[in-house]
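Deliverable D2.4 — example input (structure tokens):
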């Protein structure tokens, strides 16, 4: 790093000597990045390249440009990829030295394929019939249904519901495999009807 002078001594067949010097200016770029970011689908994050040689003035150019929301010529661009993407930054210092580094943005999608169903979705009050609620089953998800007063278990993918009145149930799933802890939300309504005044509802 910096200036280095090299000396060379040459001797010919007659024993004559001569010397020469060469000066090499070395100013290597020293940068680093975080290897991976976990990002929930439809959200944004800031990625960064770190300049470890603070005496150097760096210029930056990130790619792919179409997956960058803003700041592609800064050390900290804002990104919003729809799919997992490798970002590369090319860096040039004030001496014309060039280097590059990459980082990976892992997009976690808990929204695609998320659903909430009820079977049956209509029951009669006091009939003793339950509605089977269900959402996507995934071992990497945590489940939370609410309201939970009429559910047999609100932390599984398929609880039984037996409401006394028409109720909309909400399901929130949280993935546990990434550091992002991405969440998805859906809902389903169970309609509760008053039984008609006719057999077999009267006796």
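Example output (designed residues):
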């Amino acid at each position: 790093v910096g200036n280095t002078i090299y000396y060379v001594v040459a001797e010919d067949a007659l024993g004559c000597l001569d010397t020469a010097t060469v000066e090499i200016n070395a100013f290597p770029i020293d940068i680093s990045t975080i290897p991976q970011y976990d990002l929930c689908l439809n959200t944004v994050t800031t990625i960064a390249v770190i300049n470890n040689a603070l005496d150097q003035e760096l210029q930056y150019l990130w790619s792919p440009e179409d997956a960058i929301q803003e700041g592609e010529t800064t050390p900290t661009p804002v990104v919003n990829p729809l799919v997992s993407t490798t970002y590369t930054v090319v860096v040039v210092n004030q001496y014309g030295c060039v280097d590059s580094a990459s980082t990976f943005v892992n997009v976690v999608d808990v929204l695609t394929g998320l659903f909430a169903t009820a079977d049956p979705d209509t029951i009669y009050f006091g009939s003793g019939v339950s509605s089977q609620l269900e959402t996507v089953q995934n071992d990497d998800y945590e489940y939370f249904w609410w309201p939970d007063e009429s559910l047999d278990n609100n932390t599984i993918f398929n609880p039984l519901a037996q409401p006394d009145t028409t109720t909309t149930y909400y399901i929130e799933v949280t993935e546990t495999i990434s550091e992002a802890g991405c969440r998805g939300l859906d809902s389903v309504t169970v309609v509760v009807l008053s039984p008609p005044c006719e057999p077999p509802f009267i006796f």
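Residues 44 and 80 are 5 Å apart (CA to CA).
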